Amino acid sequence: MNIGLLLYIPYRDLENRIMAAVTGAGFDVTLAQARVLQRIGPDGTRLTELAEAAQVTKQTAGFLVDQLEKLGYVERVPDPTDGRARLVRVTEKAKGATPVAEAEIARIEAEWEQHIGKRRMAQLREALEKLGEITDPYR
Amino acid sequence: MNIGLLLYIPYRDLENRIMAAVTGAGFDVTLAQARVLQRIGPDGTRLTELAEAAQVTKQTAGFLVDQLEKLGYVERVPDPTDGRARLVRVTEKAKGATPVAEAEIARIEAEWEQHIGKRRMAQLREALEKLGEITDPYR
DNA sequence: TGTTTTAGTCAGCCTCTCTGATTAAAGTAG
DNA sequence: CTACTTTAATCAGAGAGGCTGACTAAAACA
């Protein structure tokens, strides 16, 4: 079986479950919105940085931030260090989502470890981390 | 680091490279089209089956098959065993794409093995296959 | 025979993503 | 200090890919 599909199957499962947990907890965000939301730093992040981190164009990031803003999950404030820029900041409303996602990830990882064993889980992580060295374009 | 991202990074790298190889060889298909094309069996496959395998609705699969048909990569023929159904079949024109994709996969796997070592590569495969048992909705 | 299921299509809509052009502020070279 | 270039963000327009709902025709079943 193709290694690509082997990687994709658990990834999709994980992503679906995290999204289900987050939306189930009342945070009504889409996957694309969540990908942006996730990258906003504690003191706010510029749109351009978000776009780079999420690997989309500035226009796409702007579009998603517009939606998140309308939903009340983020706000845009002027960047005091640069008159052109604005900082996208997570609102209080959105801050509850992170622990929900993290709890679900922990739950899934525990299930996986339960099924494939502690040893194999550690090997999986190790192999993937090493693979990231040559496949991650952002390092 | 999040296990989801760890899975996703090499997956995306693989997918991007396969698509680059296939389109570079002159097969002008999009990712979504390729996902459908890939699932067509040697004797043709019904639209409904393709939709299930690719995890999209029948309408979406039909839309993609329409495009592939216009491009000359597939043809629709009546299913002799069911008057309602039609079989989607890969044309000669598209058959050259498979070896291109397979060669690229082989090349990538060799590179990965080179970097992380034969042992870790085998462990990775083993862990992923076992993980598929609980994360693959189609088994 | 009449009802229900199944294969596929038609119509319409939404989300996400892109390219290209524009505005305003910052940085830089003369 | 002024003119040019770069950078942050937005506006405008388009296209791909996905969905739901309604429908037709053939098959399966009671």
TrEMBL record, chains A, B:
Keywords: DNA-binding, Transcription, Transcription regulation. The keyword Transcription regulation applies. It comes from Lentzea aerocolonigenes (Lechevalieria aerocolonigenes). GO terms for biological process: response to stress. Gene3D superfamilies: Winged helix-like DNA-binding domain superfamily/Winged helix DNA-binding domain. Residues 1-133 form the HTH marR-type domain. SMART domains: HTH_MARR. The keyword Transcription regulation applies. This is MarR family transcriptional regulator. Pfam families: MarR_2 (PF12802). One of its GO terms (molecular function) is DNA-binding transcription factor activity.
